[in-house]
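[[Encoded backbone]]
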Amino acid sequence: MAWSVTLEKIIAFLRMQLAFACCWPLTPTATKKQIIYDKLFRLFNGLHAMLMICAVAYRIVSQYENTLVIIQLGCVLGTLCEVPVQIFLFTQQHDRLQNIILKMENYSKHANIAERDVIQEYIDKHITIYITTLLLMTVTLVALILVPLVLARPVLELEYPFSIDYQPMKGIIYLHQSFALYQVYVQVCATVFLALLLWFSTARFEILGNKFRMATEYSDWQECIREHQELLKFTKQVTFSISYVTLSSLGVSTITVVFSGLTFLGKFPMFVKMQYSIVCCSSLAKVFLCTWPADHLMSMSSYVGEAAYNSLWYECGVDTQKIMLYTLLRTQRPVIVSVPGLVAALSLQHYASYVSMAFSYLTSFRAILSNDED
């Protein structure tokens, strides 16, 4: 790339960009005052999202006989529900994520040239699609917030149990709804944070595989095996900390795809259809950007076993061969992102099934609505 993007720069950017997503943990050296401020900040964001959810739910209840309104606001309600859910999940995993980020920063700081080259290769290869996605989402957010000003209409057509047809109440409602959209935006962007953890873990497996291939001494194999055990512990922390966040994204994205698809197929103005078609595409892209590195992590964690098998372990003593055999057996079980009983393994195959399922639901609902219209 013409300009250099390093791991340190990505971490610094995401730490600032995702502040309102409440996904980035405090540093271990945070003071008591900073910890209290962080908890209050998370509470404020969660309560604000809940307030917006109540407003949307009130509109749905008051218009329960209007199918088109329910379809339109069902999509909005689904995306808004993701905000407090993910804030809660990220808060629950705060200490684990703090440990993960600390290890990632320490590894980057002490990495040698060969290790840095592999990490940089991953960054250069995948950074463009993530930057493009963030830019498109940012442009969409700005459009959703500014276009209503041009058209002299609210961001969302909602009802409130009090009058809002005067200033400054109109301005307060506009700011309230705009900030709610921004909260949804940063939660979608938090997918990039999850992807960073998965790509970093994948790069470390490739680095370890390269070390196994170059090992010639007993001490080299000992070091590789020790690093493999540490890496398995690290990836276990990563997969456990993001598994339920990923599950919530899958659930919310399914709801969003179905309702936004129905909005696009229904009798709505073209402006509304364009809005929700963008929401549908964003939901599909959000899941893909997390599924892609998870699938690659599965493959690369198995690559370590292949690299170890192709090394010169058979020329060493029986003790080394026994240790290597254990490592080879362990690499037969790839590292996966899963939720027991719900998601067997987050992979591209699972993503294809997810898209198929979402559009099956959309087709079913569309058929039901068509029968009702007849």
Q: What stands out?
A: The chain has a mean pLDDT of 84. DSSP finds ten helices and no strands in the chain.
